[in-house]
Structures are given as structure tokens and as C-alpha cells.
């Protein structure tokens, strides 16, 4: 069994104060424990002075825990969590799971991060990490990338057919997001005179 330690607070006049309310814990599926069928029945846990310790079975690759938060003053929220097989774990450290796929839910990118990622995508070589594949002219053709927020991805470049060493188009990924720089236009000196807008997909 694993003890999940829950601590919740809300803003108050003098700073953060203990939240009130509770949580409903429910397995996502029935399971068999030896010769016993464990039904997916939920149980409620109330906060005392904003805290609660919940003793639950660790989840497995075939089921996880639904947790519905009923905190006073905010709408109820249900999420699915994997509970590790350990003595204790903080509620805030539980990994959120997609209950349909039982895979971890990717963390959302805050709105302010999108323009920063777009700026970074304009200078992909600054994100290169590990082995960089180059052609005989030194043009970067492929590389793993590491973004400032710790997300990994991959870069693929299209070398210029006229100007050795130059890249005319590329793609770079940030997790499930792809930034595509379409083919640029160069003048007779090799300088870029038209750079299409980066496409985000």
C-alpha cells in the first residue's frame, strides 16, 4: 500500500490558509487480487485542516485511480493518476494519466511559452544536442534538440542546392508540435531575401 499525502490551501486575507473539502478515490477498472474480485467502488476522503493521508493500492499498467476533488469554493475536478508502489508520495507528485490510453498526460504549455518557442525555432542550431549529422559542406542535416523548457525534439534540414553549407528549409519538433520553415529565397550573393512564415502543426 502507498500513503498519498495531500496538502491543499486557498488564498486568504493573511495569505494562504487551509482548504476545506474532500476527494473521491475510485479505481478505473475492476481487478482480481488472488481469488478476490476487487470492484471499482470509490471512497471519500475529507480534508482536516487542509490535509489528508490516503492509504491506497499502487496502480498497475491495467488500471489507475480516478480522483475527484471537491474543494469548497471551486468547481469539482476529476483526474486520473498513477500511484507508485512506494511507502509515501506527495499528491502533487502523482503522474496524471489519460484514462483511455493509460499513458501520461503531456503537461500543458502556458500561453506565454508559445512565442518563446517560436523564437527558438527560428534559430534551431542553438537547440542542437548530441550528435549532429552534416553533409560534406558542413550543412546541418539532422540533430536531436533540447528546448529551454526541457522538452526534446528533432531537427531535419534541407541544404541549399546553390549555396554549399546553407540551409534553405527545415523542420524542428517540440514534443508533438512541429515547426516548419518553408523554402527561403536567396539573392545572387546567397543572402535570404524572402523567408516564409514558420508553420506550426
Descriptive overview:
- The chain is mainly beta.
- It is 4% helix and 50% strand.
- It has a six-stranded antiparallel beta sheet with strand order 7-4-9-10-12-13, with no helix packed on it. A six-stranded antiparallel beta sheet has the order 14-15-16-17-18-21, covered by helices on one side.
- The model has no long low-confidence stretch (mean pLDDT 91).
| Terminal Cα span | 43 Å
Structural class: mainly beta
Contiguous low-pLDDT stretches (5 residues minimum) are: none
CATH architecture of the largest domain: Sandwich
Averaged pLDDT: 91
What is the N-to-C order of secondary-structure elements (H for helix, E for strand)? Answer: EEEEEEEEEEEEEHEEEEEEEE
Q: Give the amount of beta strand, in percent.
A: over 45%
For the biggest β-sheet, the strand order reads: 7-4-9-10-12-13
Count of structural domains: 2
Number of helices: 1
The percent range for helix content is under 10%
* Extended strand count: 21
